[in-house]
């Protein structure tokens, strides 16, 4: 929700995430295993401006997923006038992940239309906070008039994403945010299912 994102673009992100979560293929991916997925959703902008939209919630039923989607769709923007402090957002996410030590796989999603321009950046966050066994994936929104897609992809690829099988998804502007988020969620959820199956097989082999 940094100041590069206007009100219409904010709604496209918010509604896009809400719709992506209940898309049939995403919904199916949530329930491919018996282990629930836990979600925590927050908005961020400046150094000290992170706001939880959904506190930790186990998604055990389709009703849980629909409830989270509805809460995100009805949420309102908390900030409008602050820059992009991505390092602080990553640090905030890392601290919140520490509340869920029992998770088999831990993933942080970072979506943005620009580079870090406030405070320390991703590299400093990775040195200062606990990111052991955490995967960080990125969603680049190609809508900025200040930076090219190539520049943003280089920044996200070289400085933001982290961990095995991490990746960057691209939205062709905010109108494409919903589809990009849907693709991203499916890829993440199914990759965790494969990882879970491999871990179970290894344990059975003893």
Describe the structure.
The protein has helices at residues 7-21, 24-30, 62-74, 86-97, 122-128, 149-160, 177-205; strands at 37-44, 50-59, 106-112, 134-141, 168-171. 46% of the residues lie in helices and 18% in strands. It is built from 7 helices and 5 strands. Helix 1 packs antiparallel against helix 3 (62-74). The protein is globular, with a radius of gyration of 17 Å. The model is unreliable at 197-206 (pLDDT under 50). With 206 residues, the chain is an alpha/beta fold. The longest helix is centred in the C-terminal third of the chain and has 29 residues, at 177-205. The strands form 2 sheets. A 3-stranded parallel sheet has the order 3-4-5, with helices on both faces. The chain starts with 6 loop residues before the first helix and ends with a helix.
Note the gap between the termini: 48 Å
Major sheet strand order? 3-4-5
> What is the succession of H and E elements?
HHEEHHEHEHEH
- Total strands: the figure is 5
Sheet bearing the most strands, described? Answer: 3 strands, parallel
Mean pLDDT: 91
**What Rg do the Cα atoms give?**
17 Å
Residue share in helices?
A: 40-55%
Structural class: alpha/beta
List low-pLDDT spans: 197-206
Shape: globular
| Fraction in beta strands | 15-25%
Structure described in brief:
Helices cover 46% and strands 18% of the residues. The chain is α/β, with parallel strands linked by helices and 206 residues long. Mean pLDDT is 91; it is low at 197-206.
